[in-house]
Amino acid sequence: MKKKHLLYAGLAAAGIGALAVYSYLDVMYKETIPEGPAKKLQKLTDNGDLEELHQYTIKSNEWNDAQDVEVIDHVNIKGNALKGYLLPAENPSNVFVMFAHGYRSDHRGDPANFMRYYHEKGYNFFSCDHVASGNSQGNFVGFDYFESQDMLEWIDYLISRFGEDIKIILHGVSMGGATVCKMADKIPPQVKLIIADCPFTSAIDEFECVAADAGLKHTAPYAVKAFNALNKRLAGYDLNDTDVRYSVKNSRAPMLFVHGGSDTFVPTAMGKELYNLCNTEKDLFIVDKAKHAESIVQDTEGYLAKLDEFIPKYL
Question: Which among 230, 221, 158 has a CA at the least distance from the CA of 188?
């Protein structure tokens, strides 16, 4: 009987371990595996919150799809083939907006909602599919760790192609907001300002917040620690290295922080903390009714007016 019990215990442990690995891959691996427990949980807690944003993005892409966008191929230092997308300004301009998209998004997601605005300002607009997203290669999402490194390579590409005298605006939403924050202390002088929309302070903080919301309030740190152990082994990086606080504190460019006042996914407090940490010239724009990544939807006029106010000061 003891052997049978040991067998059952071993099978149960193996089943739990397999579920843990699958749940990890569900979150971190490129979006090619069947829907797992993490995505199902996300759907259950979504309650249609993203539908208005989704419809707004569809509308934005109606205009974007009519533009003559150049597709650019780049192989990063890790050997991943990445895709970039450049909409040139209507008239020659040395200003380039580089936009970083959020988790499980691509160039047709978050960047799409700002492409027309920046184009009508007379700027070149560049976005990309981050590693393991869209049409780019790679197996694991970096939660700003991989993405920030790749964006710095894209900056080098633009400078090499268009000249040392170009001016760059960095703009990112959600994970993209954290990505541009992570770059803040590493950027070359061509980057004149940074706009971080609903950035998280770190992936560790974000995962603990999500775990707590899922009912694991007291065990969240332990669950995330186990998750990170898998991440180190499978993705090859430490989620602690996604922390953007140091980079923001030592930013080399002025920063505008944008956050939804009703954001509980990446809590508004994270954006406020980063604003307070920033030691360079800065501003903070809170859209009270906006949930996660919804500021451009809930207050389009106010958001764009804030960009109109902030950008000319430093460009």
Answer: 158
Beta pairing partners, 138: none
Residue with tokens 């978050």: 110
Distance of CA 171 to the CA centre of its chain: 10
- The Cβ of residue 238 has, within 10 Å, a number of other Cβ atoms equal to 15
Residue 220: which pLDDT band, with cuts at 50, 70 and 90?
Answer: confident
Place of tokens 């186990």: 226
DSSP readout, 119-163? HHTT-EEEEEEPTTSTT---SB--TTHHHHHHHHHHHHHHHHHH-
How long is the chain? 315
Q: At what angle do helices 112-120 and 51-64 cross, to 10 degrees?
A: 40
User: What's the CA gap between 239 and 225, in Å, rounded?
Assistant: 9
What is the distance between the alpha carbons of residues 52 and 20, in angstroms, rounded to a whole number? 33
Token digits of residue 4? 């049978």
Q: Cα 159 to the chain's mean position, in Å? A: 23
pLDDT of 10 above 90: no
Q: How far is CA 7 from CA 1, 2, 16, 20, 161, in A?
A: 10, 9, 14, 20, 62
Q: What integer pLDDT is reported at residue 20 of this predicted model? A: 62
* Segment 49-75 mean pLDDT: 95
The distance from CA 145 to its chain's CA centroid, rounded to whole angstroms, is 10
**Whole-angstrom distance, CA of residue 275 vs CA of residue 198:** 11
How far from each other are the two terminal CA atoms of the chain, in whole angstroms?
76
> Identity (one letter) of the amino acid at 54?
H
Each residue of 13-38: pLDDT tens digit? Answer: 333 344 467 788 889 998 754 444 44
Cβ atoms of residues 175 and 207 within 8 Å: no
Model confidence over 182-213: pLDDT tens digits? 999 999 999 999 999 999 999 999 999 988 88
Q: What is the pLDDT of residue 23?
A: 80
Q: Are 64 and 127 in contact (CB under 8 A)?
A: no
